[in-house]
């Protein structure tokens, strides 16, 4: 699939929020945690059918890798194990690098980032999609999408509005926006 041809996805049946081309080729897909749903009383639970549909949707966009940005304790018990099994069935490789909700990457994330960045850039050059997920698919996924666009050579001042044009709720606060600008300046 060429960078000019943006993959389609079903936003109703999946938690995929956006898919867009990068300047290096390939695409970025932003998603909420696959299968995460909320009951009428507000309690979070996992819907295995929606998880499978989201993962299959990511694979259809050209994704072979999914970077999971959520902290395990913010999800229903067993979420990571269920995701591992479902991702394996879909042929998706999972990477786990959490960022605290509504926050920015910490030292632990940044220690892993150079390896993630290298693998992502190589995947883009092969025309692949890199999938990102956090709880909803906006804040941490949007921040990381912008971080990848910066790695592709885009300035933060262009990457932030670009990601938001594809999903208006992305990069959900000023702290995340300021962090991206400071990261690029450094």
Basic shape: globular
CATH fold naming: Protein-Tyrosine Phosphatase, Chain A
Please give the count of helices.
Answer: 6
Taking the sheet with the most strands, its summary is:
5 strands, mixed
Quickly give the CATH architecture: Alpha-Beta Complex
Q: Structural class of the helices, strands and pairings?
A: alpha/beta
Order of helices and strands: EEEEHEHEHEHHH
Helix content: 40-55%
Strand order of the largest sheet: 1-2-7-5-6
Name the poorly predicted regions: none
Taking the alpha carbons of the first and last residues, their distance comes to 34 Å
Strand content: 15-25%
Structure overview:
By secondary structure, the chain is α/β, with parallel strands linked by helices. The chain has one domain (16-185): Protein tyrosine phosphatase superfamily (Protein-Tyrosine Phosphatase, Chain A, Alpha-Beta Complex). It has helices at 48-60, 79-90, 107-125, 139-151, 156-166, 174-185; strands at 16-21, 27-32, 36-38, 44-46, 63-68, 93-96, 129-134. A five-stranded mixed beta sheet has the order 1-2-7-5-6, with helices on both faces. Helix 1 (48-60) crosses helix 2, helix 4 (139-151) crosses helix 5 (156-166) and helix 4 (139-151) runs parallel beside helix 6 (174-185). The longest helix is centred in the middle third of the chain and has 19 residues, at 107-125. The radius of gyration is 15 Å and the shape is globular. The mean pLDDT is 95.
